Structures are given as C-alpha cells and as structure tokens.
Amino acid sequence: MSRYLDMVDAPEHVKKLTLPQLQQLAEEIRQELIAGLAKGGGHLGPNLGVVELTIALHSVFTTPKDKFVWDVSHQVYVHKILTGRKDRFRTIRQTDGLNGFALRTESEHDCFGAGHAGTALSAALGMAAARDKRGTKENIVCIFGDAALTNGISFEALNNLSHTTKKFIGILNDNEWSIAKNVGAISAYLNKLITNPRYNQLARDFENFVRRLPKGELALKLAHRAEGGFKGALTGVGLKPTTSLVESDGRGGHGSPVLFEEMGVRYLGPIDGHNLPLLISTLEFAKTCDHPIVIHILTQKGKGFEAALKQPEKFHGLGPYNAQTGETPASKPGTPPMYQDVMGQTMVKLCRTNNTIVGITAAMPSGTGMKHLEKALPERYIDVGIAEEHAVIFAAGMATMGFHPVVAIYSTFLQRAYDCIHHDVCLQNLPVIFCMDRAGLSANDGPTHHGLFDIAYLRCLPNVIAMAPANEDELADMMFTATHQNQPVFIRYPRGTAEGVPVKDQPQLLDVGKAQVVQNFSTNGQKKVALFGLGPMNTIARKAAQQLATEGYDVAVINPRFTKPLDAGTHEFFGRAADVVVTLEDHVLMGGYGSAVLELFSEKSVTTPVVRIGWPDQFIEHATTQDELRKKYGLTVENTVAKVKAQFGETPANVTRLVEVA
Ligand SMILES: Cc1ncc(C[n+]2csc(CCOP(=O)(O)OP(=O)(O)O)c2C)c(N)n1
Q: Is the CB of 386 under 6 A from ligand 1?
C-alpha cells in the first residue's frame, strides 16, 4: 500500500492532505523514525514527541518564508523529512549525510542552526525584530522545550519580548523531561500550571475563532473532552488565560499567576500536543494574534514506541537499537569503560573520603557520568538544569565556603560560561574543578558538539591548571590531584571508551606541571624525534614511535599531562635533544598545546623544527566515526610518520591540511 509519506516531498504537499490523511502521515512518520534510526541511532524520543506538532506547523505556516526556530534543534528530524530531505533521512548523523541538527547550509527551511540549548527564543526574537523593521509579514515560530526554561538566556529573551515585537509565536513543548527528568522550580511551576483545574476551559476568543474554522467544531469537541488531570493523561484542552489580552503598555495581566502573562506574553494551553486538529486550530489562531503568544503543548517523549516511552532518558539520544524491541546491543566483552563512567565512579570514590567534594552537573547526569554520584551519594550531587553559567558561579560560591566543587560540563557547553570561568573562578583563584567531557570530537553530532577549543580558551587565563589524561587511570589521578589544589583546575578528556588501562583502587597524586617521559631516546639512535602526544593523542604518538623505530629513528615519547603549567624543563630538554619535535593534540592548532610549545621554544631560543598535528582553523563537520575525521584531517599514525620522514627529506611531504611546520 502506498504511503502518504511517499507523496510528501515538500511542505506544500502537507497542506494538500486532509485531516485523516495527516493523521495517517503522522503514523507513517513515526514508523520511519523508529525504523530509520535503528541502524545508526539518533534523537529518537524527542522526535517521536513532535510528529503531530511538526505536521501541524507545516500545515499552517509556509517555510522558508515563515521561520521555525527550534531550541537545541535535536527534534528537527520530522521537519527535515517534510522539507525535502526524506530521501536522505537514513543518512542522518553519518558521513556526508544529513546533520542531526538544524543547519542553515543544509536547507533553506532551516533558518537558524543550533545544537546548544536555550538559544531559540533570542534568535527568533531577533528575527521578529528584523521583520518588524523591514516591514514584512512572515511568521516567526519558536519551538522550545520545558528544559529550555531552565536556561537563563531563554528568560533574557522573554524579558525582552513584549517590548520588542507584537507578533511572535512561541511553542512550549512540555514533556517533563530534559535529557534526564527536568529539574527545578520552573519545572514544578509548569507542572502546577497544567494540573490547575482553573485553566480547564477554553479562552473565549480562541473558542470563537476555532468555531469559525472549517473543522472547528470537531477541534473544539476534542478540546473539551478534558477529563481527569492533564499531566500524563494528555487530554486535549485549550486554556483560558487570566486576562485574555495583553495590557496596552505591553505588560501582562495584573496579578496573573501565569509567568508568561506577567512577561507580556499571551499564554494559551496546555493543549494535547498529539491532537492534530486541535494543534492546527491553535496555530491558526496564533497566526491571527497581534500580540506575542506562547502555546503550551503537552507531549510524550517517545510517543508510539513502547521502549522509548518506558525509558525516556535512554531514548533521548542513543546508538543503534532493535526497531521492534528497542533493545540496544551489549558492549563486547573486554571493551574498556567509558571515560564518563570512570569520572563518575572516581567522584564516588573521592567523595567518600573527602567531604568537601560535591558534584555539579548542568542537566547531564548520564552524559557526564555524574549519575554514579547521584545514585551512590545523592546528597553530594547537584543538577542545576541547563544552566552552565549558573553552574560555574554556583560552584565558585561553594568554593568560597571551603568546598571543592567538581563541575562536569562538556567542553563545548562550557564555552557558554567563559566569563564566569574568568570573572568568578579564575580571577578569585577559587578551587573549582572542571571535568570537561567530549574534549575532542563528538563525531556524529558535528561542529556544535566538538570540543576543540578549550585549551586555547583556558590557557590564556591566569591561575589555571589544565590537564589532559592519556588514559582512564590517569583521569582518576588527575581528579584526585585536582582535589589537592587551591586554585581552578580543568581536566579535558574525550568522548567514548577509554584506553583499557586498569584503574588503581587508590588514585595517586601527580606532580603539577610535570610531564611523563613514556619512552626516552636510546643513546645510539641517529635521527632523533621527540613525540609529545597530549591526552588520547599519546596513543597515536606511541604507535607512530613504534613504526619510526622500525625505520631506524630514535624516538622519545612524552605524555605532557599539563597544558598549563607546561613542563618547561622537559619540553626544553627534548626540544634541544631532538632533531624534530612533533606535538599531537585533539584540539585546534591555533592557540592549542602545540602553540604553547612554540611559545616556550621561542622564549628559550630552541630552534628545533616543530611539526604540530591537530585540527585546522575551520569548523569540522560531522561524520559517522571519529576515525574517519581523524583520517581525513591527518590526526593519524600514518600522517605522523609521513611528516617526520618529510622533515628528514626521506619521503616527499604527504600533503595533509593539518600539519604545519614551524
Ligand atoms: C548549552 C547546552 N547544555 C546542554 C545540552 C545538552 N542537551 C541537549 S538536549 C537537552 C535537553 C533538552 O530538553 P528539552 O528542551 O525539554 O527538549 P526535549 O528533548 O525534552 O524535547 C540537553 C540538556 C545542550 N544541547 N546545550
């Protein structure tokens, strides 16, 4: 039987379908999401939750003229399917395939790219302001999750909204989940709002409007069929605001308990986010509003897939799974642990013996491994929501009171808190410990998630100790060492499985600012090469050393451990002793570890040539695996060997964009 999905190649095709056909389309899209992501994985749960919403949006509005701005934009798969990318959908997050997020360069229907949370309201408001200034009429629709409201930027935008434009449509997609269960007062507030029977009635202007629509009576009937509590039951309802109109000065209703209305934004909801006719009617209504409006919809993360409904956190984003059962493959015996789990388990260990330590996450208990602490010692664990800036300043506050807070934030998300790192932590020299996961590539996520800049953005700040472990045991040692410092400490480590090195029961103190000589020169070698492999690149350095040794090179391998303070003595010693120095880092070359070595050599007048291997000055695309990107950009054993040989004039330089010679 042919599917409606097969006939939909563009948003205008959605508009041609009748309501029952759209409902059938929703079902078909769900099946496509479940089957299509099974092999490569992706953000299944969030996308299953927005199928009806996305269909309704494309039924009512017309992109690219109208603009849809998605917060985080991990939930745009359905939008991609409906905007001409259906045939490439199964390539999502793979090499040369669709990106997993909205991307301006991918489609004219993606008006604003994202990957980090909390940006959509500001971006959409900027677009609305621009539209008003140029006097055009397009609709700006901003879709944001309940967890986006744990983020400060969202509130900065809301604060600015009613003073900026009269025409703005916000859709609050409330499924009660961030990646983990949503936390904090706003989450509790939304919960109160949707279980408050006072709102269990339709606003008169909305009702009158809907009644005039062709299928309006049906939508109203569905909307009125509200029985029992909203939360969980997801019965269709359109809510009455406390005051139906915004005051003439742009402010919300007086004394309104509704947060949005106090911000001068008309609130409508909550409505069942899976009720297609009601969604369509509500969006049609929103289109006619001449004041900013937020529609609060209730959706279920993972709707239509039992396994995802049962485990919303796991199915927020995952790797391959069985499309029938939702089961995920067990890891092969002998697979090393994930860095994030070593970090979480080490936290538990450290907290048990040192009661000044606490763990802080910004809505990422699983991704950072802090869930281990949450489980073992919940009183030592704090989830602040998607609020990286707050997390950092909060930690600084705790540090002033004698605590050693460990803030676990992905390298890429920590960028948002740079001023807090500078102004609140480093300037006051406070002993906050930062565990920066995903330092390096997050291959299938792509440029929004690669953590390639932290060495550069941290090493210029005074008071910083910055380290990078070469394996999981060293990560534990570094965390332990960090708890003995009285200044800010940053530890960067990569996504995924570690090296398979046994982790000692009791971590050891490391000498701060001291590199580890993994392998020294032998005395009789001719061509001397010093390989400085930072963090996970130390493995590549060791392998390259083995290969070079078989070809008559005398190779030393150094694990720098610290990018700040740099071990000046060891670097200078090997710099002078070697004929060629190679630095390897999983970081951009500009301003990174290799740059630090060059600065040192310049100061010390070490003139040995330095080959730097790292990422070039460009945003790195997504790909199926890290190895593919490393190969493409030359962060490999082969390229290291080729570059060394080229330095000795032994083979022509194997041209790779990555490698620079100083
Ligand atoms: C600045 C930042 N911090 C953390 C994340 C990780 N992250 C991605 S999606 C997400 C939860 C989003 O929840 P919500 O907005 O409610 O959308 P849902 O997935 O529930 O539909 C988080 C914490 C991020 N993308 N950006």
A: yes
Of all protein residues, the one whose alpha carbon is nearest to atom 19 of ligand 1 is 46
Ligand 1 centroid, distance to 385 Cα (angstroms)? 9
In tens, the pLDDT along 19-42 reads: 999 999 999 999 999 999 999 999
| Residue 42: DSSP 8-state | B
Nearest to 265 by CA among 127, 144, 122, 168: 168
Q: What is the 3-state secondary structure (H, E, C) of 295-340?
A: EEEECCCCCCCHHHHHCCCHHHCECCCCCCCCCCCCCCCCCCCEHH
Host H or E run for residue 594: helix 593-604
Evaluate if residue 659 carries a pLDDT over 90: no
Q: From ligand 1's centre to the CA of 178, what distance in Å? A: 6
Q: Is 350 exposed, middle or buried (0-12, 13-18, 19+ CB in 10 A)?
A: buried
In the predicted model, is pLDDT for residue 153 greater than 60?
Answer: yes
Is the separation of the CB atoms in 314 and 301 below 8 Å? no
Query: What pLDDT is stored for residue 247 in this prediction?
Result: 37
pLDDT band, residue 262 (cuts 50/70/90):
confident
CA–centroid distance, residue 180 to ligand 1 (Å): 9
Q: Ligand 1: does its nearest atom lie under 6 Å from the Cβ of 145? A: yes
* 8 A C-beta contact, residue 650 and residue 620: no
> Which residue's entry shows tokens 């534990």?
476
* 3-state secondary structure at position 531: strand
User: Ligand 1: which of 191, 386, 495 to mutate, most ligand atoms within 8 Å of CB?
Assistant: 386
User: Which letter, b or e, does each residue of 330-347 get, where b requires 16 or more Cβ atoms within 10 Å of its Cβ?
Assistant: eeeeeebbbbbbbbbbbb
**Residues 454-491: pLDDT tens digits?**
999 999 999 999 999 999 999 999 999 999 999 999 99
The residue-averaged pLDDT of 366-395 equals 98
Q: What gap in Å lies between CA 568 and CA 587, rounded to an integer?
A: 20
Instruction: Check residue 195 and give its pLDDT.
Output: 67
Please, are residues 331 and 53 in contact by the beta-carbon 8 Å criterion? no
Find tokens 């040539």 and name the residue.
609
What are the catalytic residues? 301, 388, 416
CA distances from 594 to 498, 591, 619 (A): 23, 8, 19
Which residues does 166 contact at the CB level (< 8 Å), separation at least 6?
290, 291, 292
Whether the pLDDT of residue 87 is over 50: the answer is: yes
Task: For residue 316, give the amino acid letter.
Answer: H
Per residue in 174-196, pLDDT (tens digit) is 999 999 988 898 888 887 776 66
Nearest CA-CA partner of 436 in 386, 518, 492, 356: 492
Distance 553 CA to ligand 1 centre (A): 49
In angstroms, rounded to a whole number, what is the distance separating the alpha carbons of residues 192 and 520?
65
